[in-house]
Amino acid sequence: MKSGKCPKCGSTRINEPLNIPQGIYVKVFRLAGCVYYVCRDCGYVERYLNEHGFKLLEKHGRLMSTEPRMCSTCGAEVQPGAKRCPSCESVISDSS
Ligand SMILES: [Zn+2]
Ligand SMILES: [Zn+2]
After folding, report:
1. Bridge partners of residue 80, in order along the sequence
2. Of the bound ligands, which one is closest to the alpha carbon of residue 46?
3. DSSP E strands: which ranges in the chain?
4. Any idea which ligand is nearest the CA of 44?
5. For 55-90, how does the pLDDT look when each residue is reduced to its tens digit (9 = 90+)?
6. Among 61, 65, 88, 91, which residue carries the largest CB count within 10 Å?
7. With contact defined as beta carbons under 8 Å apart, do 23 and 67 qualify?
8. Centre of ligand 1 from the C-alpha of residue 39, in Å
9. 5-57 tens-digit pLDDT
10. Cα(25) to centroid(ligand 2), Å
11. Each residue of 83-95: b (16+ CB within 10 Å) or e?
12. First CA to last CA distance, the chain
């Protein structure tokens, strides 16, 4: 995929690598630290670590951000490891 060819369908129409850097707040925050390659023909997605991802892996032995997270219900900042949102008390899911 990095070489520009889809391993699934053989297409060379690979989207520009989508680099998700550190500190971006999206619902799927764990995507931070990765680069995504998307095949525009079959939709296959391949993921590689970016620099930040490698650092996380080195530091924690796994790909997990230590940045504060956002509550998916109210958008409040949630500290890493917190089980509930400090603002709306929503349960923070770790597995979604
Ligand atoms: Zn493909
Ligand atoms: Zn909340």
Report:
1. none
2. 1
3. 18-20, 34-38, 45-49, 69-70, 77-78
4. 1
5. 878 887 766 655 667 888 898 888 777 888 989 999
6. 65
7. yes
8. 5
9. 999 999 999 888 877 665 544 444 455 678 888 899 999 988 888 888 888 78
10. 14
11. eebeeeeeebeee
12. 26
